[in-house]
Amino acid sequence: MTVLASALDPGGADYTAHREAMLAKLGELDAEHHKALAGGGEKYVARHRKRGKLLARERIELLLDPDTPFLELSPLAAWGSDYPVGASLVTGIGVISGVECVISANDPTVRGGASNPWTLKKSLRAHEIAHVNRLPVVSLVESGGADLPSQKEIFIPGGALFRDLTRLSAAGIPTVSVVFGNSTAGGAYVPGMSDHVIMVKERSKVFLGGPPLVKMATGEESDDESLGGAEMHARTSGLADYFATDEPDALRQARRVVARLNWRKAHPDPGPAEPPKYDADELLGIVPGDLKVPFDPREVIARIVDGSDFDEFKPRYGTSLTTGWASLHGYPLGILANAQGVLFSEESQKAAQFIQLANQRDIPLLFLHNTTGYMVGREYEQGGIIKHGAMMINAVSNSRVPHLSVLIGASYGAGHYGMCGRAYDPRFLFAWPSAKSAVMGPQQLAGVLSIVARQSAAAKGQPYDEEADAGLRAMVEQQIESESLPMFLSGRLYDDGVIDPRDTRTVLGLCLSAIHTAPVEGARGFGVFRM
């Protein structure tokens, strides 16, 4: 039998403590998510509604097929910055007329939907997801263009937004724009470079320069409607392909456009799958509040894969890394999960072989992170940890099957790279509220700086200030701790969202379905492995 046995004791003191710690973190996460949902705040939401307009998420809800999920991406973008949480943009994956699409919607309650630097990063990430997974893009547009005070951070890199739309179209991936209000300056190029454009009567305003700019540039007097209204673009310029009477009609027409795309997935839906044998609610009590305390990742695997059925690969070799085969919502999956945190030479070689096998079989890979990095020390350096760690990173870098990553515990140092961190282009990367990620742990980093400073003082023959050292260590530990937390990292789009552990199976299932819209093909060759 390959059904995983569980040793978790839901009535035990450890489980209860871990669950309480996780629920406290989820409470903090919910509070931050509410900031994103609030948009520009009550005043601007009320003003928007007074104009008879729908909010961004209401537009998405009407666009989607009834009773289908919406996987929102990067809802905490811009967290910890000077810009509102959410970056004045909602992005995600949802089903429209039976077709999985990437959807982006400007939030006009936040500075008129103007784009700030984090809006740009979030948009580019959505386009990347659409391109690699071959998902049609539907843009719900209402934006005043660039947030002018931050233009120096937007203008130069911002051209990639319009480049991406043309490249998606060239790759045969449909792009659809529905314009609900202002689409000014750079924002005008979103409908201008989309395959299909829908505009709303007396609401849509699409122009490179509005009446004030035209007056300043040419001296010409003009009004919004004649310069860039929906009627003009539908009758005169030809920019509008479809003319809607109101917002619900525009969303209805968008659903019809998607229905007529003749869009087909490369891989058929596998159909219903057997649920795990264990309750997903128990995922709250697995990860300790203190990540120095080890936990068995098989307890996580048992609660997310179909039937809790897992064929482990090399179970007696390199035991700090669990590897094996499973399926999730019917999709085949190879899993690499850190067990005790540290990666040794054996784990690195085991991972490299496993990744090669997954590529040979065209099977996507899931990385479950809980690693402090590769082992250091004389014995391990002499044993070849550098070349073996490089072997694992080589395999991850050159693997061509889709990768999914979930940070469930620690993800430090080069271990973050070997387990397919953000820089290694996983198709999707999510974090649990328990996760932490940095170049190393706060205490280790502060200690290294202390040792270096102490050695420097000794080399100069100077006395060492122990009191100042203690203060420095405390300050550094506090800084690194705050910068390693999931909300900080998610705010910088180093992941695609911080998720409730209980939602892990659903989130991964939605991602796997989206991934299989495009062909899944593994690499047939790798770089030179140092043996």
Main features:
18% strand, 2-enoyl-CoA Hydratase, Chain A, domain 1, globular, alpha/beta, single chain, 3 domains, seven-stranded mixed beta sheet, 531 residues, eight-stranded mixed beta sheet, 41% helix
CATH class of the largest domain: Alpha Beta
- CATH superfamily descriptor of the largest domain: 2-enoyl-CoA Hydratase, Chain A, domain 1
Number of strands: 17
- Residues in β-strands, percent: 15-25%
Chain-averaged pLDDT: 93
What is the overall silhouette? globular
How many structurally independent domains? 3
CATH topology of the largest domain, which one?
Answer: 2-enoyl-CoA Hydratase, Chain A, domain 1
The name of the CATH architecture of the largest domain is Alpha-Beta Complex
Outline of the structure:
The protein has three domains: 1-38 and 270-439 and 484-531, Alpha-Beta Complex (2-enoyl-CoA Hydratase, Chain A, domain 1), CATH 3.90.226.10; 40-259, 2-enoyl-CoA Hydratase, Chain A, domain 1 (Alpha-Beta Complex), CATH 3.90.226.10; 442-483, no CATH class. It contains 19 helices and 17 strands. It has helices at residues 13-38, 42-50, 56-63, 117-133, 151-170, 189-192, 211-218, 224-228, 230-237, 247-259, 298-301, 345-361, 378-382, 385-398, 413-418, 442-459, 466-483, 486-491, 504-515, and strands at residues 70-73, 89-96, 99-106, 137-143, 175-184, 196-200, 205-207, 242-244, 311-313, 321-328, 331-338, 342-343, 365-371, 373-374, 403-412, 428-431, 436-438.
